[in-house]
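# step 3/5: fold
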Amino acid sequence: MRAVICGYYGRGNGGDEALLVSLLQMLPSEIKPIVLSNNPRETSQRYGVETCPSRDWWQVFQTLKKADIFIWGGGSLMQDVTSFASPIYYGGLMALAQLLGLKTIAWGQGIGPLNRPFTRWLTKKVLQQCSLVSVRDDISAHLVANWGIRPIVAPDPVWALDAQSVKGLSDLPAPRIAVNLRPHPLLTPAKLDKLTQALIDLQTSTGAFILLVPFQKSRDLPLCEAVARQLRENYQIISLEDPRQLKGLFRGVEMVIGMRFHS
């Protein structure tokens, strides 16, 4: 059976890549995955799977026509806080798969916030037609239960991800603190300055080694570099593309200060 897997893949986001790897290692052997990716060549080479360009609607349509199953592969795909277009895109793909007669599954989802009537309506309609809905938190479960859907409430799938050790991590002095920041309207320059000063004070009192960890390098790295310029010593920016190594990194630290969900 052929399963099209849809998510925020091929965009360099460590958390979403971790979700993809978790799903791929869970799939039964008789299921052949086809991953919709923003960078299909990289995704194919990295994970050894068939891929399809996620923004090429004609190719996506042809791929869906030849498939049996459509899976939302984890994450907060259906929310309209950071993007109004995002739930329309993912909801539209789910609706198209249902029109084509595919079995559809919403897997490991964080549903909402959905502030606009249209995105709430679209999410409700496609979830009501799913063969299975699993969510990763009680708020999402309560929301979809109000729509007459009985979801499975389960831990976020990344808990099942296999970890790989990070070379040289154990050689760094302890305690080790991982810091994961991301751009956000609430993280103003003034608040970033306060956070940076707090890290300096924490280092002074504990002798901690700071690991600045960008999850999505294109967006998070500038913040890491801004903090690094203020730290005098005992720090390192560590950028990992393999989500299994990211999990290994977090296994090797004593504390995490994180903004992204999967940190």
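# step 4/5: annotate
The two ends are 34 Å apart (CA to CA).
# step 5/5: archive (pending)
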